[in-house]
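STRUCTURE:
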């Protein structure tokens, strides 16, 4: 699970270089939601 989140962050940083800030924010929100849901389910 940790490795999965790490790849999301790396991909997010890579995409941000050629993308806008709002996209990064939505990526962060989605990642946060994934972390929260995984924490409650486990």
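SEQUENCE:
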């Amino acid at each position: 699970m940790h490795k999965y989140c790490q790849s999301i962050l790396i991909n997010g940083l890579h995409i941000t270089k050629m993308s806008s800030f709002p996209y990064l924010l939505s990526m962060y929100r989605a990642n946060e939601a994934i972390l929260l849901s995984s924490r409650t389910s486990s």
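REMARK: The chain has a mean pLDDT of 77.
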